[in-house]
Each structure stands twice: as structure tokens, then as C-alpha cells.
Predict the structure of Exportin-4.
Amino acid sequence: MEGATAELKHLLTTPPPNFSHRSSNPHAILHASLEHIRNTGDERFLFLRSSLEVLAIHGFFHCNTNNVNTNSITPFSNEEEQLLFHCITGLRSVTLLRWDLYASSLRKVLRDLLLQLGLGSFGPLPRTVAMACLSGAASFYKRGWEEYSNGAAAVAVALAEPGSQQAYLIGMMDNLTHMRHFHDLNELFECISSLLLRAFHESQPLQYGVAAMSASFLSLLVGEFSGGNSSSRYNLPLEFHRRHHQLFENGNTAATANAAGGKSGLDATLEIGMTSLSNLVGYILNNNSSNNTAVLDSEPFLEMSSSILTLTYDVISWEFGAGKSKWESGSSTKEGSVLLRPPKRWRETLINPDFLGAMFQVYSVVRVDSSSYESIAMKKRGSMAHLLRQLLLQLSSIALGPIFEDEKEHGAYASFLLDGCLNVLEKIVVQFQQSNLIESAMEELISAEVVDLVTILSRITTNFGVQTLSRLPTFQRFLSALCTTGQWLMESSLNECNNVKGDVELMENVDWKNDAIAQILQCSDAMADDFWLVSGKRSEALAVCQALATLLAPLYGSYCMCRVQMSSMEEHYMAGEGADLDDIREEISALGLEEEMSSASSLGRLNVLGSLTTLSGMFQQCMPKLLSLFTGPQLGSEITADMAALMEEARMLIVCACHLLTDECPGETPAIPSAVSKACKNADETDNTECIAAIPGLVDILMKVAEAQATRVSTYPEESTCSPLLSKTLLWFFRRWAAAYIFPTPDDYNQSGGIYQTWAKPEQAQPVINFCATLCLLYFCHWPLEKEVQDESTSLLLALAKRGHFVRDLLINATAFEQITALHMVCASLRPNSSPNLSDMEAIGGNLSPALIKGYQRLPYDDRARVLTCLLIGCSEMKNEKASNMLNGCLAAVEKAFKLLITALENKQVHCTNINAQESACLAISLYGGIALASEMSEPERIPHFISPSLPHLSGLMTFDSFADDLSICGALLRFFRDYSEQCIGMLDRHQCSVLFSSAASLLKSYSEHHCKNRVVPRVSEDLDFEEEQKYNDVLCAIQLLIHLGTKDFIDVFNAESSQSQGVGAENITDVIFFGLQQILPLMSQGLLHFPTLCTHYFSLVGFTVETYPEKMCVLQFDLFKSLLDSLLFGMSHSDPLIAKCSLQGISSLMKEHAKSNALSNQLAVKADLIEDCTKRLIKEVVFQPFIWDRLEPAAMTLLPLLACIELSNLAPLVNMISQQSGSHDRLNAAFEKLIKPELVSKTALNGREGRMVRMKFRTEFDAFVKDVQSFLITK
């Protein structure tokens, strides 16, 4: 043994062979040398010998737990401690690697040595080294669990060969003083249990330490079997880990159960943990009652307590069922589940009211409620209290199931948990409401305690539900506590913000308070949306609703007041200090606020009338000041801090009101929230006039503010009082509110009366629609370059236009809407630097002033296009003559302007290099794009009827070299054709299809010549961003255009009519798709596949095209076919399952076509092993990988035709080659033999029912094959 340490140190300071980092950095050499020794198996046992040598030098192996002479043990230096740690971890790694090469007697003695070293049987080790020893022992126990479960008598122990180095080391370790051997698992658990029990009888610091390490060992053992916190590398297949997970959980063999005292390993660990926890609870309560608190504050005792709590937490958190464990690669369980479902056999252990009560008593003793403790004791107590709370959180997560006999017992269990949490939480709130201060020494502890307690309450609410909780005697106390706690948190945050004068960077307590408030809001959200409460009409549910409205809903007022004032103070500080805003941080903050406000709205809807009253009162205080600001004298362009704070206060109030009254419902018809509609009805179904009146009152206030702001903008657009952010927020409110409340359809709600009648008649809705249209008009003309304001303005106008024919009839009667229409007609040909034609103005009318026209001219082309989309949808009612005239005027203005441009270019009245001609082209293309996007109009067939004659001229713009070379014009055309084909493809007749086809072909040809050929795409970096991807937006548009051109609707419509008339055949239509694809393929192979959006659309196009037209793809030139196939092979192992599915379907289609018609013969003549290579890559890169489970079916349907394309004589050598390269040769060969059945493979090309049955059977066989091979190929 002597000299091992010196030899090891020498190796660790010498660079290993093939050391790639030629530097003198000693740390790099150290880690490389350690890795080299581990990988080579440490044949000289340097890790073990050095460990024993270092320990012996420092006086270990001369004492034990019965007679410890700590004076004989000398401390380690930092270098020795580090060396010992690396030796222990290296010994674990090497032993697991060479497990089968070591004699079982050596493995057992190593296991027992590491366990006793970690437990301190030979003396106390540094914690990092002791934990490494215990981790190694836990790993060895798992590795030999089946062997150890059978007991010493059942399995013959393989002894080391006499005279060998293994025999020498075994003998040396056996002769260590008081070296103990564990012959079976029962003996192990008895030993650990006795060590934990002894600590409570002897009450010595050394015993506390031993007990702490004993509990830590069991935690590590549970972690090894669960896979949750294991750091060991076993180099064994998944089937080993799954089997041992099941063995540890169930002990499903008699030998295993007997070895663990009649229990599984998990049950035995639970019993030890709960027994130790019970002893700990009793010990703490006894010492506290006798005022012997000194022992409770000792560091060793607190360390032991924390270890026992951690052990109990780890056991209770066990994921039951082999299919739910982390070792199950194909597990379909949902991520993030918070509820626990322990088995019935744990019932007596967990469901014990006396034990729960004692737990809370212990918590009240352990928690730190003052700063009188020493810093170390305070920290340890805080850590122990946190672990207690985490354990209680797990106990709160036990769901209704076999562990509870009935719902009554479930409710009683909830009552114990709820009472205990409320007792502590109320005590904290009362204490700090009185002092209103948190001492700095306790700040961290109190913050963690409050967050954990409200998290437990939130978990209880989610788990047990309102129906169960409402029947508890403490339910009203629970609601009051939530409200009081939330108000205290909000008010204390407001006070802190006030103390730092709005500088939120100096608010030390804001983060944890926000976390706690978020949990309270989540809790209230869960109650408000509870199914039993929402769907219940019984008196019990109504009484609960009333309790929520009375006791919990008042928190909404405090929340709004504090959030609004804090935002106002922050804005005051930012404006006063001239601080720069961090855009990324602001975006994150806005998203967080949006989520928080959504939860808060559920809280406010518990008492809609009370919440509206609160907001109205806050508006009444804020809005008069804001209105006076907007209606006062001109103030210039400088904004003061007071002005900024006032506008931020108003903005936040608008946000609160919007979330309270409306829901964001993308993709759905906007509707009045059910809670709001219910609040406007009394219990007897009569109207609640007070609540109904409160909503229009609030809306009227906002309309006045919006009108004043917009009027100010029209007068002084550059003035500081004009806030784009405030305008955007107001427009956002009216967009969400108008879309839900104006002309609600009773059929959508199955209700009438109430709030539904407030704006349900023309005389009620017309003023509101006039107001919204006027608001949009003012912003279009006076703030044309405020991008976010224009986005919300067009969104508001579009929401009204899409509301239905009732609203559209009112919209065209709005004077402002008529003016917007007239502005479009006048400006359809006007660039920003053009002058309007007076004759056109007079002909169109609309009372347009030069200022309005000039402002509208300055609108960006994309915004003008969106406005045109709104106009077309709003004017689309064919039965209304006025609407039809307005619609025709809008379209005629675009057509006239475009014809003038084409005529001037063709007659060479203007050259294509002229900047004005280029601007006119961009404007015309954008307006046509706006028309294409108006497909939601009534009678949308009018769109292709108008656009089709212009398509050849639009694509013909690319015949002018300057236009063709300009990527902005080319990209705009690609976007237009993409949008038009996407929106209108289903409504085109034969002629329109043909025009679109020929025009798109012409466009793609010009695009290819000017922007694809010789275009070099540099290799992109791994850190991609949105701006970088935008450089290739033209490629994305071209891909999307090809996707839309290749849709079934397009081909089906064309085929339906082409049989009756002569014209271009469907096969010729597809030529444009293949032509475009051929131009894009070389680009995509040079790096663009790394962009997520481009990659997704590309594979969508390729997958669909290959699946639909495999015969054409098979006869491409070899270079193009190779590029296509390489991209498909790249995509099949992509992290995105959708991309992988498209790629696999593409390969499958190619191989099916080849199996039917030998279509790939030309490609195989160039590369004979092409199919074999595809098969090998599919199996190695997909089937054998852990991610196979999200692409299992497409992988099966790809492998089947691949196998069918390989001759049987070549199939066996291919399988044999794959098996040899992948390891586990015999098992893999057997699995392949079971999967590949010639009678199935030969029928791959069949259609009809027989073909479907073949594919279904292969899919089933493939599923079993993957589970089988993954279990022994994937190692961990």
C-alpha cells in the first residue's frame, strides 16, 4: 500500500497520452489524468490504495463509534481532502466500470468499507468526502441489489484468487479494526435504523453526526434507484435500471422481501424515515417543554434533523410505477405533475392526524421568530424549517385515491394541513403588521417562510378543491388569511417602493413578495375557476361564491391600488433621473405583468361590482388631472416626472380595467366573460342594474380620456403630454372591449337582458362605433409613424369590421370611416413625397383637409395595406348599396394607380431606376397585399375576381432589371403571392388557377435568376437571433408560396374543371413547385436549416411534395436528389418532432415509390448502396436514440419500405453489420430477426385493406422492437 499516494500524485501531474490541451494549466492536467485513470480501469488500484494510505496516516482505522478517540485523528490539508475526494469518486467509477472483473468478495468489502467510512465508523471525515463515500456505497448496493437481496446463503460468493492483488486488498480491509460486514439487506436496514435510534437515546454530538450521515445514505440510496439525483455512471442498459426501480419499489420476489424484513427496499426506507421523524418530533417537543433548548440549537442536532427530513421528503416523492420513473425513456407521463398518489399500504404511515399535528408543533418550535439566535444556529434552524415546509408541501400534494377511504377522510386530512399553515401564517402577518419592519438578520428566513406557506395553501386549494375546502370549519378563516396576507404583502411593497422613491433596483424584498403574491393569485384563480363552483347552482355553491366575494375579493382593490402606485412611482423616478430602459428587461416585465393581471382578474371577478367600484374610484382621482393636462395650454416637448407618473398611473388603471372586463381570446369569437355576465344578473335572474350601470360608466371615463388624448395629438402631435404608450393601451382596451360587448349575439350566450342589452341596438352602438372610427382616423393622420399605435388602431378597426353585418352596417355610416375610405382613394397612388391631385379630391369628396391627406400619406405602406384590409371587410355587405360603392371605390383606386405605373414603365415615360417608380411599385404591391388579406369579408370571391387580371402585371414587374435586383420589391411580391394563394386558394376557378400558376412561375423564375443563383449563404453561428433569420425572409416566403401552391385544394379545384375544358394540366401546375424547390435546395444545404422558422417550413414543403409527387422526385438529377435526400436525413433526427415526421414521411414516400416501380434505378446506378446507407442511418440516428418515442410511428413507416427495397440476400449482412457496430450482437440480431418477417416486408407496396393490415402489424412489431433494443442499447 505504501507509495500509492506518491505514484498517484505523479500520474495526476503528468499529462496523459493524447492530451489535446497542450497547456501548463495544472487543473486541466489533473482532470484529464483523473479521467484517463478512470477510463483505463485503474489496474493498480491506485484510488483504493491511496485512500487507505491517506486515511491511515491521519489516524483512522484505530477508533470506532463505540470508542472514538478523536485526538488520534489529525486534520486533512486542503490538498489531501481534494485528493481523497477524487480517490473515492474514482474508486466508485472504476468499480462500476469493472464490476464483473472484480470478485464479489472484493465488491462487498469495498461497499462495506465505503459505507462505514461515510457513517463515521472509523472517525469523522470532512462532509464532502463522507458524502462521496456514502454515494459510492449506495451505487454499489444498487449494482448488486439482486445479489444482496438473495442473502448470503443463496448465492455462492466468488472469492479472489489467492495471492492476487484483489485477495491482498480484501485481506487488508478485512483486518481493519472493527470492520463490519453486512451479509444481507435486512442487516443493513437494521444497522441504519439502530444508528438513527441511538442518537435520540444517547444525545451526543458524535451520534448526531452518525445519524445525519445514516439518513443521508438512505436518501442517496433512494436517489440511485429513482434516478432523480444519481451522479453515478453504471454503464448498464435501461432495462437494468427499470428492473431495479421496480425491485426497490415492490420487492416483487420473495427473496427480496425477506431480505428487507418482509418489506420492499422503499417500504423499509419509509419505515425508517417515518420512525426517525417521529422520534425527532417527540425529542424536540420534550426538550422544548423542559426548556432544554440548548441541544435544539446545536449544529450537529440541526444537521441530523435536516437529514432526516430530507430522507422523508425523498421517500414520499417517489414516482410509483416502473413506467413513471425517470428510467423509462418512453414514458408518456405529463411533466410537472405536482400531485402524489402513494399506494394503499402507506396509508397508516402517512394518514395520521396526530402526527400531522405534532409536525406543526415542531415547526412552531423550530422556526425562527426573532434575531436572538446565533448566526449559525439561525441559519441551521432556517434550513430545517424550510425542509419541514417542503415536507408539508409534499404531504399537501397527496391526491384523493387509494390512500384515503372516502372524501370525508380526505377533507379531515386537508383540515389538519390548513389549520397548521394558517396558524403560522397569521402569526407572521400579525407580528410584522405591528412592527412593519423585518430585521435584516431574519429577512431571508421570513421571506422563504411566507413564500413556502402560501405555496402550501395554493397546493391545498389545487389538490382538494373548493367543494372539499368549503365544508371545513376553517374555510372562511382561510379566505380571510389569504386576503390579509396579500394586503400586507402589497402594502409593505408599496411602502418600500415609497421609501426608495421609486427606484425598484433598491427594493430588497420585492422579489420574494412578488413570488408570494403570485401564489396567492394562483390560489384565488384556482378557486374562481373551480368546476364545482362555476357549474354549481345549488345553495351550497352560491354560499361559497358569496363568501369568496365578501372575504377574498377585497384583495383585488389593494392589489390594483398598490400595483398602480408602484408603477407610477417607478415611472416618476425613471423620468426624473433620465434612466435608460433595458428593452429585454422591460419585455420580460411586461409578460410577467400580463400573467399576473390575468390571475388578478379572476380575483376581481369574484365580486365584479365591488371591483368596478374600486376602479371607478381610482379613475375618478386620476382622470381629472389627466384631462386637465390634455385640455390645458401647450407645454412643449419636455416631459416632467410628474406628468410621466400620472400617465403611467392612468395606463395601469386601464390595464386593470381591461383584464377585469375582457378576455384575450385569439382564434375565438370574442365574448363577454361569464363572471361579468353573471354579475349583471341577480339570483332571481332579474337585472342587476347597479352592476350594469357601472360598466358603461367606466367605459365613458375611458372614452373621454381617449378623446382628449387623440384631440391633443391632432393639435400638438409632438407635445410631451401625448404618450404613444397610453394611446396604445387605450386602443388595446377598446379593441378587446368593443369586440365582445357591441352587438353580442344572444344565441352565443343562450341569454338575454343584463349587460347584453347595453350596446345591442343601433342607437346604442352607433355612437361607440363613431368614436372608435374617429379615434383611428386621428391616429392614422396625426401619428402615422408611431408603429405600435398604428398596429392597435388597425386591430381595433379590424375587430369592428369582423364583428358581423350589424356592426358593418353601422360602421359605414360613421363619418370617420367614410373619411378613412376617402383618404385611401386619394392616397392610393401617393408616395410620401407626392402632392395630391385636386380633381381626385373633389371627385371623391369626404371633406378631406390637406393636413389629413398629408398625414395619411406618411403612413408606412404596410400600415396602409392593413387599413385597406379593414376597409374592404367593413364595406363588404353586398346588399348595402353604399357599402358596395365604397368597396368598389377602394379597389378602383388601387387598380388605377397600378395601371398608371405599368403604362408609364411600358411607354418608358419613367425608367425603372427612378426612385419614385420604385416607391410606387412598393406601394402598389403592398396595397394588393392588403386586398389579398381581406378574405374574411362577405362574399370573398370578389377578391380573386379583382386580383387575377393584375397578377401577370405584378409578376411582370420582375422583367425590369432594377426591380428584379431590388430584394425589397422581389420580397414584397413573394409575400403578396404567398398571402394571396394562402387566403384565396379554395375559391379560385379554373381560369384564376391558371393565371396564378403562370404568374407565380414567372415570378419564381425571375427570383431564381436574380437572388438564388450564385447566392452564398454563410455558415451560421449556433447563437441565432431573429434579426439574422430575417435576412432570409425572401427564402421563407418562396417556400411558403410553394407550400400553398401545392395544397390539395388547388389541385382538386383545377382537376375538377380541367376534365371539361382544355388547358394546362395538373401535372404542369406541379412543375412550378419542383422548379422552385430545385432553386431552394442548394441554399438550404448551406446553413439555412439551422434557422427554426425556415427549417420548419422547408421540411413541411419537402415532406408534402415528396409524399404527394414521389414519382417526380425520384427522377431528379442526382445532385439535386442527393441534396434532397441529405436534407431529409438531416431532418429525421431533428429535435423538433414535426420536422422529423415530415422528413421521415418524405423518405418513406420515396422508398414506397421505388418498391412499386423501381423509380430510383437512375439514382442507384450512380450510388448503389444509397438505400442501405439510408437504412443504417435511420436505425442508428433515430431508432437507437432516446428521442425515438416522439417519432415512433413515422420511423416504423419509413423502415418498412426501406427493408422492402433491399434484396433479401443483402438484408442479412446489413443487419449483421449494424449489430456488430452497435454492440450486444446476439440480442440485437435476435430482435431484428423477430422484427423482419419476409412475408410482411414483401407486401409493403400493397394498397387497400391488406396493405393497411401489413403496416399496422409492422407498427406493432416495431414498437416492441424499439422497447426491446432500447432497454439494452441505451446505457446510463
Remarks:
- The two ends are 33 Å apart (CA to CA).
- The chain is about 70% helix and 0% strand.
- The longest helix spans residues 440-470.
